[in-house]
Structure formats: C-alpha cells, structure tokens
Amino acid sequence: MSFLQPLILAALPLIALPVIIHLIHQRRHRTVPWAAMMFLLQAKRMNQGMARLRHLLILLMRMAAVGALIFALSRPLAGGWWGGIGMTEADATLILLDRSASMETQDLQTGESRRSTALGKLAALLDGERAGGRLVLIDSADDTVRTLESPRALADLPFTSATATSADLPGMLERAMAHLTANDAGRADVWICSDLAENDWDPGSGRWAAIREQFARLKGTRLFLLAYPQPPANNLSVRVANVSRHTTGKTAELSLDVEVRHGAGEGASGGTARHLPLEFEVNNVRSVVEVELDEQGASLQGHRLPIDAKLEAGWGSVAIPGDANPQDNRFHFVFAEPPVRRAVIVAEEAQAGEAFRLALAIPPEPGREHAAQVLSPARVGEIDWETTGMLIWQAPFPGELVADQIERFVSAGRVAMFWPPEGPDDGSLFGSHWTGWETAGETPAQLAWWRGEADLLGHVGNGDALPVDELKTYRWRALEGPGTVLARLANDQPLLVRAATDQGAVYFCATLPTARCSSLERDGVVFYAMLQRALTEGCRPLATASQREAGRGALGDRDDWSLVAPGGDAAALSQRGLQSAVFRSESGGNWAALNRPKAEDTAGPMPAATVDALFAGLPYQRIDDTVGNASPLAREIWRMFLLAMLVALIVEAVLCLPDRRVASKRTSEFAPATGAAG
User: Fold this and answer.
1) Pair 623, 659 in one domain
2) Coil, helix or strand for 447?
3) Are 8 and 73 within 8 A, CB to CB?
4) Which range has highest mean pLDDT (6-10, 318-322, 674-678)?
5) pLDDT category, 318, cuts 50, 70, 90?
6) For the chain, how are helix, strand and coil distributed in percent, rounded to 5?
7) Would you say residue 74 lies in a domain?
C-alpha cells in the first residue's frame, strides 16, 4: 500500500485524541463519599467488568474513526494482492522483462500485447508513487543490465520492443541477483513480467534451488510476478522445414514442408474443418494456396514451388492471416545449392568403419550428395577440415595436436562422434575418458531410458518413436566425464552422451555397430537415423543458406550481414538478430533466415502451483493480469476507509446507548429497600 498524499499521515498521532479527551474528562469530577449510595456502589461493582469492556470498545471505535479519516484523506493506493507492495519505498526497483515471441499475443480490439500492457501498467505504477532509488531493466533478449532515468521511457526504448526470441527466466534472475549483490542495493523490489511459458522458465532446471537460496540471503528484497498466463484464443502458427532446391533439365523448383498448428492446448473451435489461405513469397513473387484446417492443424509435405532456373539462391516466406499473435504468422526461409555432406571416419577396426560408411553414404533425401571417407588413425593428416561436416572417431583418443584440431573443428559448429576403441586408452578429450569393457552375459542389455523428445534419438517428423527399445547391447565400454545422457542401459550405464560445448556438438557412444557388441548395424533404423541427424547438424555451417533461431549472437559469425526482408529498417543495429528476418552476406553470398524458436509455438503456460513452488520460501507475490484489462496495478481505496470510519461511528453510537435491561434490574432490586425505609 502507498499514498498519493503521504504528508497527511503526519496527523496519525491524532488517533490518541479520544484517549486524551477521556483522561481530561475523568479529572473534571470530584469523588464525594455518601453513605446512601452504598448499595448502588455494590451493584455497580457487580457489573464493573462488562462496563469497562464497553467503555474500552467505545474508546477504540472513536480512535478507529479518527484513524480511518486520516487514511482516507491521504488517498491510499493498493493493488489486488492487498498489501503485497509494502509501506516502505524501495532503494532499487528491477524490472525483468520477458520479450519472447509469445509475449506478443494481442487484444484484437486494442492492439495491446502482453508485453506492452505489462510495460504500460508498470510505468504508471512506478511513475505514480513507487519509483524510489535506482530503476534497472533486465530484458530477456540481451545480457546487458541497464539503469533507466524514468519509468515513463519503458514503452519507447528499443530494448523493450517485440522480438522473435525465447527467454531464459532463471538466467535473468541470476543477473538480477548479481546486480543486487554487486551494488549492495538494500531494500529492492524485483518485478518479473512474463506469460509463464514453460520453455522460458525451465522449471526442471537445477538452477532454481540455487536461485531460491541466494535470494533468501538478501534481506529486504521482494519479488513480484506480473503474469499473463491465459492462452490466446484461436491463435495459429506457421513453420517451414526441409527447404531444398531441385533442378530438372531447364526447370527448377523448391520443395518445402509447411506446418500450421493451433496454439498450445487448443484446437479448432467447434471441431469443424475450415479453409485457410497460405501466402507463399519467393524473392518478392507471391502465390496463395488454400489448405484444410482441422483440430490437428494443417500441413503440406513436399510442397513444390516453381522458380527461375537461373535463381541458384534466394529467400522466401510463408504467411497465414493475422490473428492474436503477429509474431508467429510468418516464417522466413532461404535456399541455395546444398553443399556436399561430407563425413570422415577414423576407425581402427575395418568392420566398424565400413558400417559407418554405409550408413552415412546413403542420403535420406533424393538429390543430396553424400561423401563418407574411411581413414586409419595413421592417416589423420589427410582430413580436409574445412569441407567436412562430421567426424567419427573409433580409435584411442588422439595426441595434443590432433585434439586441438578436433576442438577447433567442433568450435566451428561441426559434429564429432567418438566410439570406443578395442584396446587400452589412457587419453581423454572434452573432459571424458574410456574405462574398461563390460559384458552383458547370457542376456543382452537393453535400454532402460532414452531421450525421445529431441536430439539424435528424438521422434521422427510424424511423431512416431524410433525403435530404440529393440536395441540389444552385448558389450560396452564405460565412459566417465560430464555431459547430458541421451540413452541409458538397465544397469544405469550411459550408452549415448552429449558433451557440453558452446558451438557444434560432441557425442560419445559406449558400444560399437558390430555383431559382437550390439545390434545397431543389424537393426539399422536407429543407427542410420542417429548418424544422419548428426551429419545434418554438422553440415549446417557449410551451407551458404542457413535457418537460424533469432537471438543475441544469431548473426555473430559474420560482420557484413545486410537486411533483405522484410523491407525497411526492421530493427536498430543493437537489436539486429532479434527479429524474424532474412539477411545476406555481401562477401561469400551467404544467406540466413531468422525465425522464432520452435518451443515458442508448442510450449504452454505453467500451472500456477508450479510457478509458486519455484519461489517457495521467498517474499513473493503473483499478480495475474490479462491483455485488454484497463484496470491499473494499484488503485485508490480511500472510499473503503471512509466506510470503515462510518462503521466505527455506528458501532460507537450503539455502544453508547443506555442498557435498559440493567437499569430495570437495578430498580427491581432496590425498590423494596427504599419502600421499607419510607
């Protein structure tokens, strides 16, 4: 609670005025002993307890009426959380702004989004009566912690504008914690503005325990969550995948997959299908195709668009009609002649090397050129690191010189996959090393768990799972080192691990694709899928046309990117890479299409109980708001204090009424004695 006229609160000592008047009134009367009043005094003592209680209540009601009048004149402000905003002014106010794509969900009548609504309400609240001390902004799209001059500028700053990115709420809270600790902020209010999208909060992350522990140490810090958890109604999103250029004789065409899906947790209203126009644009040439939208959405697999045969590279987009969120209504793509998908296999066992070559040499898509080269460990010097997208290493870990080359190879965005050697290996790479071989015995070991939602063992495009549960493992080599386990055997031994890297990817597989070690080569499907996915990921940096997720650093590989689409000055230079757009590099002819991450289309809001549990034990308040709600975060409640004063005066008047029951009782008790005396 806060006040528009706080100086009037200086009159609060007037609450004691009824007590002072009562004490002065008592001193005006003199006590004169009178024998005839003996019986009356005795009766009065019998009712003295109730009388004192009534007099005390009368005095309290008079004090409450004076206090309520003073509070009403000071024009108090309070929000819907009743007292969550304290009486004291903060030394610092931190705003943690979620600028993810899902925060652009709008009210179609007003055009206000979740982000703009939150900024407007916070600006009004802080500018009105709470912007004490420093005002600090931490936004989800930038690592910079900014100090603001005034809350009025919140809505107009470039680093509070809309983006096509995701958010990292735990990371933002960690930056807020570091700022408060470094600046010894004292009393601080931390405001979090978010739509509670699960992918942005990552509630299963181990960072939350440390965040709670660190904030608990900061005395005087309060957390307020301004939440917009209500999912949008009838919102659709569009995505494009598998864009490729094909040439047949003198004609050329593009092939692409288009998916239209409903917002998280919703389907088509009424369960009836309807037609939806899709607008295709390729180098400023537009066409429209109608698709049938049902409860599952809509999709076009392998849709073909004819293009000029001379057009070897370019850009395009697919758009749907406007709805609640404009950020997910258009998806940009780029295309160019695909590079040769080249893999190098360094194997000490010829049988394993041949298994790798066969799985990598067969392209999953027609028209793609694959090349897989098998080398012995002694011929590592023949590797062309510049044109290779994937390295398979089935040999003892290399020496320092080759290890440095592999680390640079991965840092360039490529993929390295390590398989165990048969002989002893005392080396290590990427913090991991092999230990001894283990055998399953008579019954082959099967997988007890694997990560099926993503990475090398993720589900296929139609949602079906890979037959990972059918794999059999006869021999494996234990691996020690950090990383994310993607598959685990029943004896809790990791079978497939992804190491932590800033760029590229590094995998360790604990068995071999030979009949002596596993059924990988014999079953084939899982083996082929995981190698082809790794090869696709490793060859992305080699392509002159790349699909990228919008975010800070999305265009950090080159300095000469220029904006191609959308036309105009889409974003300030400091915000480049945060919007959905197409860029081209003047040197080298590279193309890049930036779009929102896939999780922004699929993730729904977290349950309120899950959110509250993340802040358990902290001084925390959650305020649920909706887009289009015009009510401010804080409002004047002086009318309630006037009502309280009126109630206090009425109660005081009732208590002051004479107790006729007691008076009649006293008359009946003393009447006989009086008559006898007469």
Assistant:
1) no
2) strand
3) yes
4) 318-322
5) very high
6) 35, 30, 35
7) yes
Specify whether the CB–CB gap between 262 and 293 falls below 8 A: no
pTM, to two decimals: 0.70
Question: Which residue intervals of 261-346 are DSSP H helices?
Answer: none
- In this structure, are 223 and 249 located in the same domain? no
Query: Which H or E run includes 527?
Result: helix 525-539
Q: How far is 626 from 612, CA to CA, in rounded Å?
A: 18
Tokens (6 digits) for 633? 């975060």
CATH number of the domain that 318 lies in? 2.60.40.10
For residues 280 and 408, membership in a common domain is answered with no
- What residues pair up with 298 in beta bridges, in sequence order? 260
Q: Report CA dihedral (204, 205, 207, 213) to the nearest 10 degrees.
A: 10
Structural domain count, the chain: 4
Contact 430, 406 (CB under 8 A): no
Residue 564 tokens, joined? 């191609």
**246 plus 314 within the same structural domain:** yes
Q: Angle CA(250)–CA(251)–CA(254) in degrees, nearest 5?
A: 145
Indicate whether 35 belongs to any domain: no
Cβ neighbors of 175 (< 8 A, separation 6 or more) are 138, 143, 145
pLDDT of residue 454: 82
Q: Where do the DSSP E strands lie in 12-102?
A: 76-78, 92-97
- Are 326 and 349 in the same domain? no
Q: Residue 121 belongs to a domain with what CATH number?
A: 3.40.50.410
Find where tokens 């305020």 sit.
623
Residue 406 forms part of a structural domain: yes
Strands (E), 175-235: 188-194, 221-227
Residue 238: both structure tokens together: 């569009």
- Which tokens is 583 given? 């860029």
Distance of CA 543 to the CA centre of its chain: 31
Higher pLDDT, 347 or 645: 347
Tell me the C-alpha distance between 179 and 146, whole Å: 10
Phi, psi of 76 (to 5 degrees): -70, 150
Residue 612's closest CA among 174, 186, 81?
A: 81
Euclidean distance between CA atoms 214 and 221, whole angstroms: 11
CATH number for the domain including 481? 3.40.50.880
394 found inside a domain: yes
Identify whether residues 21 and 73 lie together within a single domain: yes
**pLDDT tens per residue, range 49-98:** 677 787 788 888 888 888 888 877 876 766 544 444 444 567 889 999 99
Domain that holds residue 330: 236-337+543-601
